[in-house]
Write a structure and sequence with these properties.
Blueprint: H1 3-51, H2 54-60, E1 68-75, E2 78-85, E3 97-100, E4 105-111, E5 121-127, E6 134-138, E7 145-152, E8 159-165, E9 178-182
Antiparallel strand pairs: 1-2, 1-5, 2-3, 4-7, 5-6, 7-8, 8-9
Length: 183
């Protein structure tokens, strides 16, 4: 093997690595986004499961209220999702579970099939028992549906959405509470 053949081989390897690196980076970010979307959906499913367990409120909630709150907030520049039992002043004094989104991601919220908007302090309260539990939101109304769109900050076209359909209408339900992940 001559020196020219060796240099050509090294050039081809470097060219292939140069093409593969950016593609691998995008793949890694999408994988992290997919994992976070799964975690967000599981947070809501977990809150729903706890809502169906009356013993959880006996152990955790001295105020006697039997509902849970999922709070979306920003902590040190990172979006955080927390599950805690509701109390009189909506203070998360006992956090049951939480998940921090990756720093390369952002989150926007849409209620009742409206436009997406960012919210730094957003709470979703659950009440009732499955399959007819009901969610209420603050500071926006979400009497029919709630969509949480997670996307990469560097490329907002790379996104996934967690959609939560509320029990509707609440007096004679024709649609029950559901959680799904949309592409």
């Amino acid at each position: 093997m001559t020196l020219i053949e060796l240099l050509i081989s090294l050039f081809i390897i470097a060219l292939m690595a140069g093409v593969a690196m950016p593609l691998f980076s995008v793949y890694q970010r999408r994988n992290i986004l997919d994992n976070d979307v799964q975690s967000v959906a599981q947070m809501f499913a977990y809150a729903r499961a706890l809502q169906n367990n009356p013993d959880i409120f006996t152990r955790l909630n001295a105020s006697g209220l039997n509902n849970l709150v999922v709070k979306i907030s920003t902590v040190s520049g990172t979006k955080r999702i927390e599950v805690y039992p509701n109390n009189d002043n909506n203070d998360p004094s006992y956090i049951i579970d939480h998940h921090d989104l990756d720093s390369s991601e952002s989150l926007s919220i849409s209620t009742n099939n409206g436009d997406f908007t960012t919210a730094d302090d957003f709470t979703i309260s659950f009440s009732g028992k499955p399959p007819a539990e009901v969610m209420t939101c603050a500071p926006m109304e979400c009497n029919q549906s709630l969509a949480l769109r997670l996307y990469l900050t560097s490329d907002s076209t790379v996104d996934r959405t967690v959609q939560i359909q509320n029990t509707y209408p609440q007096d004679r339900p024709t649609r029950y509470f559901s959680i799904s992940i949309l592409d």
